């Protein structure tokens, strides 16, 4: 009768060491299956650490009604602004985060949209466990009628104090590289309320208190 090899399965019955090897393999596969199931549950039900956002610094250089002239045409009433923000976005997860939609900052005064700025473009990648600082500029003007009567009245009150309440709303969508197909897309939505004094002309430093942005549903953000 042929003898069994010690390192492979025998047609006449596996030897003892072969049985132990198969038993260990079975346990290993079971553990791997459990870990894979846990990963799917974590990604699908939102246990992945949430993205964080903070405003480290901000400066308001101009914020006022003005007249815009173009050639011989009559001046056009506008509302002009010049806002700069240092926005810190943290990826607290253990995977690289990829923006599947642009991360957009919308600047709002009295619920009236003033400006949209792209913070990070579609396809931009953010390393795991890292904080990235984006410098965002909102410079321009909108027709004066964009600020309705209530917004104009609010502006007059705030102008008297010298401090303006400007909200920066963030919206976007991310996924995690290497975990595609497991329902890991996350919509991003934040509200960053800013109290900004009008900065004096020149390079003088204006003290700003760091603001932690609050998570909110993206559908509340102006587009």
From TrEMBL:
One Gene Ontology cellular component: plasma membrane
Residues in the signal sequence: none
The keyword DNA-binding appears for this protein: no
GO BP: defense response to other organism
Chain ranges passing through the membrane: 21-43
Keyword tags: Membrane, Transmembrane, Transmembrane helix
Cell compartments where the protein resides: Membrane
UniProt key word Disulfide bond: no
Chief location bin: membrane
Record's protein name: Late embryogenesis abundant protein LEA-2 subgroup domain-containing protein
Taxonomy of the source species: Eukaryota, Viridiplantae, Streptophyta, Embryophyta, Tracheophyta
């Amino acid at each position: 009768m042929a003898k069994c090899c010690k390192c492979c399965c025998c047609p006449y019955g596996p030897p003892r060491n072969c049985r132990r090897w198969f038993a260990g393999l079975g346990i290993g596969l079971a553990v791997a299956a459990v870990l894979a199931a846990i990963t799917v549950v974590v990604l699908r039900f939102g246990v992945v650490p949430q993205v964080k956002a903070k405003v480290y610094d901000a400066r308001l250089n101009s914020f006022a009604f003005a007249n815009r002239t173009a050639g011989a045409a009559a001046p056009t009433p506008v509302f002009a602004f010049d806002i700069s923000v240092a926005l810190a976005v943290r990826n607290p997860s253990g995977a690289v985060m990829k923006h599947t939609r642009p991360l957009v900052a919308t600047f709002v005064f009295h619920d009236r949209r003033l400006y949209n700025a792209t913070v990070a473009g579609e396809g931009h990648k953010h390393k795991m466990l890292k904080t990235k600082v984006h410098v965002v500029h909102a410079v321009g003007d909108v027709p004066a009628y964009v600020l309705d009567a209530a917004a104009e009245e609010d502006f007059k009150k705030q102008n008297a104090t010298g401090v303006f309440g400007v909200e920066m709303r963030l919206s976007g969508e991310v996924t995690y590289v290497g975990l595609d197909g497991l329902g890991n897309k996350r919509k991003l939505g934040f509200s960053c309320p800013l109290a900004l004094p009008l900065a004096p002309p020149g390079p003088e430093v204006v003290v700003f208190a760091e603001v932690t942005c609050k998570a909110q549903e993206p559908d509340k953000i102006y587009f």
